[in-house]
Amino acid sequence: MTHIEIRPYDATMTEEWDRFVLNSRNATFLHQRGYMDYHADRFPDRSLVALRKGRIIAALPASGTGDTVCSHPGLTYGGLLLGEEATAARVMKILEGMCARYASGGFRTLVYRPVPHIYHRIPAEEDLYTLFRLGAVLDGRSPSTAVVSFRRLPFGRERRNGIRKAMVSATEIGQSDDFATFWKILEENLMTGHNTVPVHSLAEIQLLASRFPGNIRLYTATQHSQTVAGCVLYDTGEVIHTQYISASPRGKASGALDLLFSTLLDNIPPGCRYFDFGTSALERYRLNETLIHQKEGFGARTVCYDTYRLDLTALKAI
Questions:
Q1: Dmax of the chain from CA atoms?
Q2: 3-state SS class at 14
Q3: Which of 288, 300, 297, 258 is nearest to 194 (CA)?
Q4: Does the pLDDT of residue 39 top 90, yes or no?
Q5: Which residue blocks in the chain are alpha helix, DSSP H?
Q6: Is residue 217 packed enough to be buried (19+ CB in 10 Å), middle (13-18) or exposed (0-12)?
Q7: pLDDT digits (tens, 9 = 90+) for 84-125
Q8: Residue 7's pLDDT is what?
Q9: Cα 67 vs. chain centroid, distance in angstroms?
Q10: Helix 157-168 with 256-266: angle, nearest 10 deg
Q11: What is the model's pTM?
């Protein structure tokens, strides 16, 4: 087998990294450096690359502090990104080598969050097999809900009723660049309902949307020119993911989100296979039954977002 070199990522590799991501079997735009690095001050980079004949064939976006390294705490999902020539045997060698590299650098634990399978352009679960062989344990599982674009299930009665109410209220659906107005609705809901704030500040989401205008879009529901609901979509090509969803009291009462999602689902672009509504878990991975019930009303069903934990001081031989 041709020698594979494991190296830390550095800024001189930015262009090569991004080219690799664009052609990877399972990477998305979240793994491009323009997305990963916007919060580099909060997440010290510990990413590694695997090189074969001088070219990247695998990359692990990662950050670490103390004795724990994670793939990647600042992203919805991390995981080992794989090129077409990263076969099962090579991935085993690569991930084993990366773990050894982290262990020699003083890390004792790897927290690993793989890219969910619906985001794969080509199957890419060699990492899960390798984690099993190395002795990793499943440490967390969050239920997301996704609609299959080419085999949609019918809407539930509550969602159909909401659509009718929204239409009676003269609700209009469209793309918008008014993140500020939507962010006020989102922040008020999160603070009132959960005493928290969005993961991204308004300035951050505006920055990311300017960097990735084809991937990050805001859609809103308006009534008499007033924004009453909206959602921020992350479009990876294979999957459209709802990063943020929120509605004002008026929007909730009039079913604005029901009409918004009905419109979006009716207009999924060609080539997109899934519409992912995101996770519905409370603390300690308890199911948020109210939230998941709402999403299932659009015909969505469960996809798991997993987290694995690997003791780097006690790796099993593979």
A1: 66
A2: helix
A3: 288
A4: no
A5: 14-23, 33-36, 88-104, 126-134, 157-168, 179-194, 202-211, 249-253, 256-266, 289-296
A6: middle
A7: 999 999 999 999 999 999 999 999 999 999 999 999 999 999
A8: 97
A9: 25
A10: 100
A11: 0.94
